[in-house]
Amino acid sequence: MSGNERRQEISRLLAGADHAVSGKELAERFAVSRQVIVQDIALLRANGEQIVSTNHGYLMPVKSQVSRVFKVYHTDEQMEEELALVVDHGGTVQDVFVYHKTYGVIRADLNIRSRLDIRRFSDDIRTGKSAPLKNITSGYHYHTVIAPSEERLDLIQRELEEHHFLAQLLDYEPVDFWKDV
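Above: the chain's sequence. Below: its structure in token form.
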């Protein structure tokens, strides 16, 4: 298989995947080194492919989706429940960010699409690999959620509200969170 053929296959595979595909998985599948995969991903990106790197592998965002930012609040123990409400209703938790009065917006990509992604993320938190970003703002934080339609986002918003996870914006919080990011 030529390099071009391999890159086309990688692109097709990522476009059809419903989870992040690790560099190791790709390397084994195509019988090349992980470094070759890293180079292939760089070439695909240079040719305009939208490929996102996560700590669990590579993703291609699904096209024709809409997004909405939700301000939420919950305890560490409720984190999995909050994330599950989103993915179980067809959403992807694209990121988490906080608005800190001194530091401004601090953001991290999540790309959580499934309960498996939630479990992996929770394991990283539980084992002490990291602490939730929300903890620097007393539990208040934001998620950008992507979904196939506004109706799906409305459903997710209702579920978050019914489970008391939605929080109100305060006067000092910016309306356009991405302006300075």
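Helices lie at 3-16, 23-30, 34-46, 79-88, 115-126, 150-162.
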